[in-house]
Design goal:
The protein is α+β, with helices and mostly antiparallel strands. It has nine helices and five strands, in the order H-H-H-H-H-E-E-H-H-E-H-E-H-E. The protein has a five-stranded mixed sheet with strand order 1-2-5-3-4.
């Protein structure tokens, strides 16, 4: 039986292709030599087991079994290739999903920043429109007053001509007083127009800082005020400028210095919460130190030191009246630069 077994293996056409004859692949006793391919070895092993179990197999059954094994191996290779392709596709889809999620996160952040900038721009536009309306109302009122006083002056002139011979001193005195009022009204009108132009000019130069929310330009009691939010320019409970604060004051200094007919007072303002552990005895001292630090930064950036003073108001001049609400407290923590006329 071993002779027949050996004969069947050495005469089959599907022996491993090694470049030698089938006989050259056989070892001692007619058995195959070690095969390099694991798959071929598996096929040989299965075939040997089958032949060992049956002892004698016909050539047709042998060929059919070999073909079946080849088909099974080919199917396994195809499945393995499909699984590898599916695995590569899944990895590519995962990478693409990560990219999409990252892009979505960036887009969401950009949208939030844009929304915040739009809201700040809308608020600033509303403030500017309100300020412009107030200035225009003031100018219109002064113009009306001037027109009325000119009309009264004309009436007095007519009256003086009519009564010139009777009470000349009284009429002259009344006319002089009215002329003085007209001159004062004209001067006030010119001053209001100049201040309106000053506010427009300064706002235009500081527009980038205004849009970024780093400062505001407004009026308080008829005076132009530049407001710097405290939470942006200082750390909580500190009088040391942040980098943003230093940069903002550095850009503000040359704009203020160009207003040669104005003096400046740097004012420190706080909220109404007493200081606990910041190292300052009170909000007065914190406001004073912040004003002094801001003044030093402005002078270092080019503002003439003999034109700027400091003051501290603590929490006495809030810009937001709901002083116990957190958003109002944040708004009330600020440094202001007030523009004053030069005193001769």
């Amino acid at each position: 039986m071993s002779s027949a077994f050996s004969s069947r293996f050495t005469s089959h056409r599907d022996l491993p292709q090694t470049g030698r004859s089938p006989r050259a692949s056989l070892g001692r006793g007619g058995f195959p030599k070690p095969i390099a391919s694991l798959e071929a070895s598996s096929r040989w092993l299965a075939l040997c087991l089958t032949l060992s179990a049956t002892a004698c197999v016909s050539q047709g059954k042998y060929d059919a079994k070999v073909a079946e094994l080849d088909s099974t191996a080919t199917a396994l290779e195809d499945e393995r290739a499909k699984h590898a392709a599916e695995r590569d596709r899944a990895a590519a889809l995962a990478d693409k999903l990560n990219q999409v999620q990252a892009a979505l996160g960036e887009a969401t952040t950009a949208a939030a920043a844009l929304r915040q900038k739009i809201e700040a721009g809308q608020q600033r536009t509303a403030e500017l429109e309100q300020a412009l309306q107030e200035r225009e109302s003031t100018v219109a009122a002064l113009q009306q007053q001037l027109d009325n006083e000119k009309r009264l002056l004309a009436e007095f002139m007519q009256l003086a001509e009519a009564y010139g011979a009777k009470t000349p001193e009284d009429l002259k005195r009344a006319i002089a007083e009215l002329q003085q009022k007209v001159q004062q009204t004209e001067a006030a009108l010119r001053s209001a127009a100049m201040e309106l132009e000053r506010e427009r000019r300064i706002s235009q130069k500081l527009q980038a800082l205004i849009d970024a929310g780093k400062l505001r330009v407004r009026r308080r009691n008829g005076r132009l005020v530049i407001e710097l939010p405290g939470d942006i320019h200082f750390a909580s409970g500190s009088a040391k400028l942040t980098q943003v604060g230093s940069d903002t004051l550095g850009q503000l200094a040359p704009v203020l210095n160009a207003e040669q007919d104005r003096l400046f007072v740097v004012e420190g303002h706080t909220d109404n919460v007493p200081i606990a552990v910041s190292g300052f005895r009170s909000n007065w001292h914190l406001g004073s130190n912040r004003a002094e630090t801001s003044r030093d930064a402005l002078v270092a950036a080019g503002l003439a030191g003999d034109r700027v003073a400091i003051a501290s108001w603590a929490d006495l001049l809030p810009v937001c009246p709901q002083v116990d609400d957190p958003p109002c407290r944040q708004r009330n923590r600020r440094v202001e630069v007030v523009l004053l006329p030069r005193f001769e």
